[in-house]
Design goal:
By secondary structure, this protein is mainly alpha-helical. 79% of the residues lie in helices and 0% in strands. Helix 1 (4-56) runs antiparallel to helix 2, helix 1 packs antiparallel against helix 3 (86-112) and helix 3 (86-112) packs antiparallel against helix 4.
């Protein structure tokens, strides 16, 4: 049977790994929004400018096809950016990571005290961990492992 100190250490480890995983996830989604957003802005600007040029003279057929493809690609990228909601997902992961960090600091305080916690404090910590786990967005398993979750018993050995 685990002692309270062992339990607090395990919770601290899980909170630390989950905090890192949420920060990695926030970074991943934050970066992906730029991979979709920047080309979308460039293509939209290019297409918009070419419309004014086309009003002055009739461009070559290959240029018309190219601008049509650029217009479709820009619309597709904009739709993907909206549908995937990477900016919102990134922010949700960042907030969850900050909350796990705060909980980790609270656990550190108890650990620095030799793991001495009352039944009420332990119940409050468990409630906080459970609430945070339920409110947090899902973390891809690959990112969870990158954050150091390879040793945690709660994860399966393979992603399949």
């Amino acid at each position: 049977m685990k002692t309270r100190l062992d339990l607090l250490k395990e919770w601290y480890k899980r909170a630390s790994v989950t905090q890192a995983a949420h920060y990695y996830s926030a970074g991943k989604f934050g970066t992906r929004k730029y991979y979709l957003g920047v080309p979308s802005v460039i293509l939209t600007t290019l297409v918009g400018t070419s419309v004014f040029a086309a009003l002055q003279n009739t461009p070559a057929i290959w240029l018309q096809i190219l601008m049509g493809l650029a217009s479709v690609t820009a619309a597709l990228l904009s739709a993907l950016q909206t549908f995937l909601g990477d900016a919102e997902r990134s922010e949700k992961h960042r907030i969850a990571a900050a909350k796990y960090g705060a909980l980790g600091r609270e656990l550190e305080c108890y650990l620095s005290n030799g793991g001495t916690v009352s039944d009420e404090q332990l119940a409050d910590l468990l409630k906080s961990l459970n609430t945070l786990a339920n409110e947090s967005p899902n973390i891809p398993l690959k990112i969870y492992r990158k954050a150091g979750a390879t040793e945690l018993e709660i994860l399966p050995d393979s992603e399949s």
